[in-house]
Amino acid sequence: MEIRQATAQDIPEIGQLFSKVYTTKSFKDFTPEKAIEAMRWLFNRCPEVAFVAVEDGKIVGAHLAGSKPWFDGIHIVDGELFIDEKYRGQHIGLKLTQHYLNAAKKLGAVSVDGISFVPAPNSENRWDIAPQFFNLAWHEKNGFYRIDQMAVISGDIDELIQKTNERLTA
Ligand SMILES: CC(C)(COP(=O)(O)OP(=O)(O)OC[C@H]1O[C@@H](n2cnc3c(N)ncnc32)[C@H](O)[C@@H]1OP(=O)(O)O)[C@@H](O)C(=O)NCCC(=O)NCCS
Fold this sequence. Notes:
binds coenzyme A, 22% strand, alpha+beta, 5-stranded mixed sheet
C-alpha cells in the first residue's frame, strides 16, 4: 500500500470512492457525479493536503481538505477522510493523517478543525447519520478533542429567508 499526493487526475476515482463509502441502504443521494464535483471543489481548496492510499493501482482511501487563514495562522478545515470498507483497520486512515498533517505543518497550519458525527436522539431527517459514521472516538484516540462550547448549525434556505423576513416585519 502506497500513500501519495493526490492529483487532479485522481478526482474521478476519489469521487467514486467517496460515493461508495457514504452510500447506505437508506441514503443514496451522494451519487458519483455529486461526489466527484464535491471532491474536485475540496481538492482545489488545498491540493497540498490531498493524499490517496493506493493498493494494486486502486485508490482505497483518501484525505482532502481546505485551508483557511485565521487570526492565529492557517486552519485546515472541512476535511474528508474515508477508507474503502474492505481496507479499514489497517492504519491506512492514520497513515493518510500522518501525511496530510506533515504537509499542513509545512504550509504553516496551526490546527485542524473538523466535524465528527455523534448519535443524537433528535436529529432531523436530513441529518440522519448512519451509525458507521459515528467516528468521534477515532478522532479523539488520534489527538482531536471535542469543543463542547461549539455547535454545528444548519438552516434550510427557504425557512431562513422566511424567518428573517418575519423577524424584520414583526
Ligand atoms: C474513520 C476511518 C477513516 C478510520 O480509518 P481506518 O483506516 O479504518 O483507521 P485506522 O486503521 O488508521 O485506525 C487506527 C486505530 O483506530 C481504531 N479505530 C478504527 N475505527 C475506529 C472507530 N470507529 N472508533 C474508534 N477507534 C477506531 C483502530 O482499531 C486503530 O486502533 P489501534 O491503533 O489501537 O489498532 C474509516 O473507518 C472510514 O473511512 N470510515 C467511513 C468514513 C468516515 O466516517 N469518516 C470520518 C467521518 S467523521
